[in-house]
Structure formats: C-alpha cells, structure tokens
Design a protein that fits this description.
heterodimer; A: about 350 residues; Rossmann fold; four-stranded antiparallel sheet; 14 helices; B: mainly alpha; two-stranded antiparallel ribbon; globular
Chain lengths: ~350, ~325
C-alpha cells in the first residue's frame, strides 16, 4: 500500500483489478491450476483434529493483486486454512510459501511481519484501548515498542507523530475519524469490522486475509465495507476473504475457491462456480439429483414456479446462482448455513 | 476524643510505614502484571520473599555487603520470573495463575523446611542484616522523632524515606512505560492476544518482559519489608499478602499509575484504624465485652475491610482512580 492513501481518481491509475481478472480469465476452471503470478502457494497441507481431517489441500495458488474469495459450507475448513496460512495453527504436513519464502513453522507475528495480515471472524477490537491506540498498534517497526527505547521518548516521538498522521488518514477513509478518542469497545459491530481492517492496513500489508468481513455487519454498512475491500485491490494488495454470501462473492472477487469437508472442490472465476456440479452437491447435498417420487416432483415444481414468478418481479436480471437456487428446492438458503442473503 | 486522635495518628503512621511501602511495591508489580498486561500472578509474594531473603542470606550467611544482597535478591526474582514464564506464558492465562500460587506456597515451605535450615535458619529465619543500611541514615537513628503526632524511630524513618523514594521511582517508571508504545502493546495483550499477534508483535516476549518487571518490583517490596522488620522469616511471606496487595490495587484502581500506591496507603490506614479504634472502644466500655472482646479485633478488622471492598465494588467498581467507562466496557 502506498504511504499516501488519499483517494486518487480511478482514471489516473492502472486498474490492477482488471489486470488480475484478465490474467485469470484464460485459466482452466480446475482445482490446483497454476496462476500466472501467485503470491501464496499452498502444497499438500493437511491438518487433522483427532480423526477429523479439517483441511487437506493438495495445491492452491493465490493470484497477486487480486481478490480471491474462499467459500464453502460450515465446517469446510476455511477458517482452519486461514489459521494455518497465518501461523495461528500448525499443519500436520505440507508446505506453503509467500513470495517464494516458506511460511512453515513461522509464528503468527513473524507471518504478520512478512506482510500477511489477517482479521478474525469474531472481531477482535481491543475494547479498552481508544480507536486511535488500536490504529497505532498496527504500525510496524516502532522504536517505542522496545523496553529500553520506550523510556526515552526522544527515540519514538517523531515516529509516533508520523504514525498518528497516517492512522488519521486511514480513519478518515474508513469514516471513523470522529471516533478516534472513543474506546473501541463502544463501537458498533460494523464499525469494529472497519476498525479491524483499518488497523490491519496500518502495517502496510502485502496480503490481507479477511475472515468473514461481512459477518454481523448491517446491510447499509456492507456496501461501504465491500467498497473498502475493492480499494485494497486498487492499492495493489492481494486479498483473500472467507464469505458465505454468493452475491458478495460474485460482486467483488476475481477468483473463487470452494472448499468442502476440508478439500478444495472447485476454483474458477465467480461466474463459473454456480455452474459447477461439485459445488452444487456440496451446498445442496449430493442426493438432490436422485429420482424423486411423483409427489415430491410436483411440490418441487410448484416451488420452482413460484420462485421464478418472484424472480421476474425483481427488475435485476437473475444471475446463475439465483437461477440455480430457484430451480432447486428452497433449501439453498439453509444450506448456506442460514446466512441471510441481504440484497 | 484523644483516643480517637491517637488511633488516627497510629493509623497514619501505619499508612506511611514500611508495611504500606511493602504492599505498594507488591501492588505496583501486580498492576504491571494484571492491570496492564492481564497476567494473573497469584504468587507475587514469592518474588518478595526472594528479595528479602536475597539480602538476608547474602549478608548474614555469606558475609557479603548489603548492596550485593540487593543485587542477589533482584537477580533471584528475575530468574524465578523467567522459570515461571517460560512454560506458562504460551498457554492460557489460568496456567500462570496456577503455577505462581503453587510456587509462592512451595517456596515458603521450602525456605522454612529443616533441610533448608543451614541457609535460611528454617522457621526462625535470619536477622541482623540491615545495620549497614540503617547506618546510612543522615540522621541519628537512636533517637525518636515526632511527626504529625506520630512517633518514629530514626531507623523506621530512614526505611520509610528510602522506601517511598523507591515507590516514587517505580511509579515514574511505570508511568513512562505505559505512555509509550511498549505500554500500548501490553494493554493490547490484556485485551486480546491473538489480535496483537496478528499485528506482528511477539506477544510471548512482551508478556515475559512484563512478568520480569513486576517481579522486580515485588522483590524490592520484599526487601523493604525485610529491612523494615530487621528480620527475614519464611512465615512472614504468607501468600495472603499477595491477595492483600490485590485488594490494595483494586481499591486504588487497576491500570492506573498511582492506584496501587494510594490503595496501599488507604488499606493499611483502614486496617490499623479499625484495629486501634475498636480496641479503644472496647477498653472504654463503649462496645460491651460480651459483644466483642479485644482478642477478636484482629479478625474483625479484616471483616470490615472486606465489607468496605464490597461496597467499593458495588458503588465504584473502577476503584479510586479508575475510569468508570473503562470498567463498564467489561460488562458488555
């Protein structure tokens, strides 16, 4: 991220978003496909908890400068994979590298210092620190964070002032500047998500890993939150995020990786995913193709017709996933573990 | 009336004496551990005992100079902090609590055991190690001095003076550290370790630094106590003192620089005032002997302090100096 995050008119700069999308456009839609310019490469990573294999990924590459969405039903191992990649958990086997540098056996703070920062599914705002203190904590290489130098304010004053200015710019961008002296504990859930993201940006990350950035955020704030995620890509960062909501995924991601039962079952551009049979199986259950009895068939048909009728009432064109979900039974919503698809 | 004034004077002396300094230094250490970093150290008294016995053993047993004893005490406390921290600080907070409380009790039993008698003199403890320190006093230590209606021996006054200077320096150090980015990391660790890790800070190292710093304050407190009483007896270092120091910290306000200091003064003042006051009320017959005899007073005063603490937590949970907004955040 450039030191100066002030908004530049989009026309004045290259659009890396489209670059990443364009670079990925011609790739085959298959699991483990090699990317033109991978930032993160995962190889043979497995993690078991007792008898349960939580993650078993043969090969995965994450394109630099793009937004990669990681989706999958509950218990698919998305968060476990996040924990493994950021050093919060150690795998049983496998290697993974960032910019060619192995991340195996690195502790979380060392991974973060390399430029891979993450946020958490359950937001971790530091409640009894002010918003500004939260932000300043994100800055790296602070002199004042060493015990001896902390005793001599002269060694860290200037750095602190510079960090404060940068934090203020980020807070303004995330519209939290008015809250800078409030305790983070009094912020709303959505503001905490924003603060956590802004705090992560203070460390000048190269890769930002967002674990369900939208969880617990009201629909109004969702749009601005997603806008900020897109901004990260504009700033040249690589973004990986976990999400349940297909609409969000389709809206912002350049590439989508689908996990189920610890394995990657599909990857491809967002529009490819809803046509993928494995994905449909993972979300709706593998037996949805099984022959139906007459009664069931009639019921499903009636539901589908009702859904189509509803769909036509909506002015926007139905996208593949919506068509998919309306063609199938109404179980789509509950299969994506009840996440409310706010539109 | 004069009884009441006497009781006030005696309580004031207690609130400013070496015992208050002892608790203040203990509580400053606990403040660094618990108040700022969120480490649950339930064995602060172990560090104090190492401080006190560091001087006592070095001087009486090994014939070393007093200042060598001070260094020995501090080094011993640092070593113990590292030993306790190495295995537990990677784990959840509870484990440090378990290990420290066990160590505090275990060390005391070890120091008073028969096998340790050649070094620590067992249950009788060590004495006669503070003369060279008392001799440094710029005034005559044989005389008694009257200050604000209280009577101090020259030695007591000297220990108290040096002790309060130590408390002031310790508070200054904590103040300086906690307004720096270093202190900010500690406070963030108290809030959420994983978030701090995700921001590239070595949480383990910071927790260790905090543990060692607080342990050194504890050791200094133990030294003041040993020098003040002129003896080092293992049973003086009961772990109940750790919890009294916690009480002082909560009374004054945790995560505030002056909280532990003012808390200790007030705690000692109240304990002594309740003691002397109740005794004089009993001897004057105002409280009938059938209700309360003077032998009960030693226990009753702790009951009073307990009730006082409960009232404090109900009406002012943040302590004297604390920020109410901060405490209320926890309730959410």
């Amino acid at each position: 991220m450039p030191a100066d995050p002030s908004p530049v008119p989009p026309a004045d700069r290259p659009a890396p978003a489209r670059l990443a999308q364009a670079a990925l456009a011609d790739l085959p839609w298959q699991v483990g496909v090699a990317k033109p310019d991978p930032a993160l490469v995962v190889d043979g990573v497995t993690r078991t908890f007792g008898g349960l294999t939580a993650v078993s990924v043969d090969h995965l590459e994450i394109q630099r400068g793009g937004i990669t969405g990681l989706i999958g039903p509950n218990g698919a191992g998305k968060t476990t994979l996040f924990n493994l990649l950021t050093g919060f958990d150690q795998p049983d086997t496998g290697t993974w590298t960032f910019d060619g540098q192995s991340l195996g056996k690195l502790s979380p703070h060392k991974v973060a210092r390399l430029g891979v920062v993450r946020t958490f599914q359950l937001t971790k705002a530091l409640s009894r620190l002010t918003v500004m203190q939260n932000m300043l904590l994100g800055a790296q290489d602070q002199n004042g964070e060493s015990f001896l130098k902390a005793l001599v304010p002269g060694t860290w004053r200037r750095q602190e002032t510079a960090n404060t200015e940068r934090a203020m710019e980020l807070l303004t961008r995330f519209k939290l500047d008015a809250k800078k002296d409030d305790f983070a504990g009094i912020l709303s859930g959505g503001q905490r998500k924003l603060l956590e993201m802004a705090r992560a940006l203070m460390s000048d990350p190269k890769v930002v890993m967002l674990d369900e950035p939208r969880a617990g955020v009201n629909p109004a704030l969702t749009q601005s939150l997603l806008g900020h995620v897109k901004d990260l890509r504009e700033d040249g960062m690589t973004v990986v995020f976990v999400e349940h909501d297909m609409d969000v995924v389709r809206d912002i991601s350049d590439w989508v990786v689908v996990m189920a039962a610890g394995k990657i079952i599909a990857e491809g551009p967002p529009e490819s995913i809803s046509q993928n049979k494995d994905v449909v199986d993972a979300y709706l259950g593998a037996h949805h193709d099984a022959p139906l009895t007459n009664e069931e068939e009639d019921r499903v048909l009636a539901e589908a017709e009702a859904a189509i009728a509803r769909e036509e009432g909506v002015p926007t064109g139905a996208s593949p996933a919506e068509t998919l979900s309306s063609e199938r039974t109404g179980s789509h919503r509950s299969a994506t573990d009840g996440t409310d698809t706010t539109r | 009336m004069s009884d009441l004034l006497d009781a006030l004077a005696i309580a004031l002396k207690s609130g400013l004496g070496f015992q208050a300094i002892f608790f203040a230094l203990l509580a400053i250490g606990i403040n660094v551990h618990f108040g700022y970093t969120g480490l649950l150290n339930f064995g602060q008294i172990a560090f104090a005992m190492l401080g006190g016995f560091g001087i006592a053993i070095s001087v009486s047993k090994w014939g070393m100079p007093f200042w060598v004893g001070v260094v020995v005490g501090i080094v011993a406390a640092i070593v113990l902090a590292l030993l306790l921290g190495l295995p537990t600080l990677r784990l959840r907070a509870d484990y440090l609590a378990i290990v420290t409380i066990a160590t505090a009790e275990g060390l005391r039993l070890l120091f008073r055991s028969v096998s340790a008698t050649p070094v620590t003199n067992g249950t009788r403890g060590l004495s006669a190690f503070n003369q060279s320190f008392i001799a440094l006093a710029p005034w005559d230590t044989q005389r008694r001095y009257a200050i604000l209606g209280t009577s101090w021996s020259g030695g007591e006054l000297w220990v108290a003076t040096v002790g309060w200077i130590l408390v002031a320096l310790a508070s200054l150090l904590v103040y300086q550290l906690m307004r720096s980015p270093w202190g900010r990391v500690l406070k963030a660790i108290r809030e959420d370790e994983d978030a701090v890790r995700a921001l590239g800070k070595n949480v383990y190292s910071y927790k260790m630094q905090a543990l060692v710093l607080g342990a050194v304050f504890g050791a200094l407190g133990g030294m003041v106590y040993a020098v003040g009483t002129g003896s080092a007896i293992p049973d003086q270092y009961q772990n109940a003192n750790t919890f009294l120091a916690y009480a002082a910290l909560i009374l004054g306000g945790a995560a505030r620089v002056l909280g532990p200091v003012v808390g200790s003064i007030i705690l000692l003042f109240i304990l002594q005032f309740a003691d002397t006051g109740l005794r004089s009320l009993i001897s004057n017959g105002i409280i009938p002997d059938t209700l309360l005899s003077s032998t009960d007073v030693a226990q009753i005063r702790f009951v009073l302090v307990g009730i006082g603490l409960m009232l404090l937590l109900v009406f002012r949970p943040q302590g004297i100096f604390g920020d109410r907004r901060e405490v209320m955040l926890d309730a959410r």
